[in-house]
Amino acid sequence: MCAAPFDWIPFGxxxxxxxxxxCGLLAVEKPDGILAHPNPNEAxxxxxxxxxxxxxxxxxxxxxxxxxxxxxRVYLLNRLDSPTSGVLLLALDEALADVVRKLFAxxxxxxxxxxxxxxxxxxxxxxxxQDMLVKSKGPGNSVxxxxxxxxxxxxxxxxxxxxxxxxxxxxxxxxxEPRTGRTHQLRVQTSQHGHPILGDxxxxxxxxxxxxxxxxxxxxxxxxxMSTELTFAWxxxxxxxxxxxxxxxxxxxxLGGPEKGPSKGGSGPRRDTxxxxxxxxxxxL
Length: 285
What we know:
Blueprint: E1 16-20, E2 25-30, E3 54-56, E4 61-65, E5 71-76, E6 85-91, H1 94-105, E7 110-118, E8 126-137, E9 143-147, E10 153-164, E11 171-178, H2 185-192, H3 206-213, E12 223-234, E13 237-244, H4 249-255, E14 275-276
Parallel strand pairs: 6-12
Antiparallel strand pairs: 1-2, 1-14, 2-6, 3-4, 4-5, 5-6, 7-11, 7-12, 8-9, 8-10, 10-11, 12-13
């Protein structure tokens, strides 16, 4: 499958393509601190947005000059908070964008995250969190979410404890698989269930962030969208697309180094997954 050139897309600082498909679907890895799209009526420093270019909130697309007097569109298919790193999907075709957005809207896209949270263990190592969330306005007209005792929107997340940090630090690596897509869902639910994410300045634990995070030189939110996977019909074919962004180095550093022991893996039948731009690092989850 041929690789499409993306040098015409002016990506922001540190953004890189990690997977592509000839249908016009591509996945990029967004670093922490980069906006998925510019906020309305706000000026942004060069390089701090996923793609440099005019963004239409109505179309949910970046408008890019092609150098030949024309405009090309790059459609944003999902979002991550600025402090969250990991996989984001883009499309170069409007009809394709509509197909994939419907999958996200109906929770038919598999998304897996990793996070570093407070505590060396969970009461139950694996399970499902189910909460009702409500949105409200925060400082500066920002959006906030919280757990409601009555009305609200259902937020469902599967979680699994992976390992504790070294040096007896009160810190664990966990895997999170949201089955719904509520605003700040993972950040709110981890905090609600007693395990706030390291570096979360909105829903986290201030003292924990200071003693385990900033005092040790870590300033980011330790939440990372590690993989995205979906299957859909397109032009008479079934396309299976998956993309992975490896664990950031800051995670391993905060944990005290890589986990010892051989990694587990295996091979099986492969479907049409797209063409990787570069080799992907696999870690055990």
